[in-house]
Amino acid sequence: MRLFPCLAAAALLIPGAASASSMVIGSGLARMCFEAADAERATPGTLDACNRALADEPLSFDDQVATYVNRGIIRARMSDFAGALSDYDRAIRLDPGQAEAYLNKGALVLKVQHDWRQARDLFDAALDRHTRRPEIAYFGRAISNELAGDLAGAMADYQKASDLAPNWDEPKKELTRFSVRKRG
């Protein structure tokens, strides 16, 4: 059984972002935590399932890392931002290749800490590690680039997000704010 985290934290930052996850085979508390994060159900009961999974279940390494990310997603949805960041950091310490931890942390850092520099680095890390939702990483990086004053980079990233997720309206909406003019 391998539990992959979803992208609910990015949805906190990015309107219209849908969460995505991989199918999980098996049952147990870790699966309940995964399903709650995937379905964007953040309640004390779903948080308890995550806590109990980490404390009581014999999880594989990958499932343990994914459960930290999923618990972080649930915590973020419950406005426990410090707890969410702690979970993402724990997942990254355990598995520096865990792309979804970087992606979710980047979205939360941008939303809560308004630190576009760190967020941009986190979105880059998610892309470098082949996140399953690159359109979210490009969109988050576009926001970071725009805040940095890199309008050409922002426009390119909004376009890439739009190309990767043609049914997602938010990048298209952001692109309408840009225009290209010839110099001279």
Question: Summary?
Answer:
With 184 residues, the protein is an all-alpha fold. Helix content is 67%, strand content 0%.
Secondary-structure blueprint of this entry?
Blueprint: H1 8-13, H2 29-38, H3 44-56, H4 61-77, H5 81-94, H6 99-113, H7 116-128, H8 134-148, H9 151-164, H10 169-175
TPR repeats: 65-98
InterPro entries: TPR-like_helical_dom_sf (IPR011990), TPR_rpt (IPR019734), Ycf3 (IPR050498)
Protein name: Tetratricopeptide repeat protein
3D structure, described in words:
The protein is an all-alpha fold. It has a single domain (8-175), classed as Alpha Horseshoe (Serine Threonine Protein Phosphatase 5, Tetratricopeptide repeat). 67% of the residues lie in helices and 0% in strands. The chain is elongated. The model is unreliable at 1-26 (pLDDT under 50).
Q: In angstroms, what separates the terminal alpha carbons?
A: 60 Å
Named CATH topology = Serine Threonine Protein Phosphatase 5, Tetratricopeptide repeat
Q: What fraction of residues sit in β-strands?
A: under 5%
Please give the CATH architecture. Alpha Horseshoe
**Given the structure, what is the number of helices?**
10
| Sheet having the most strands | none
The dominant shape is: elongated
Q: How do the SSEs run, as a string of H and E?
A: HHHHHHHHHH
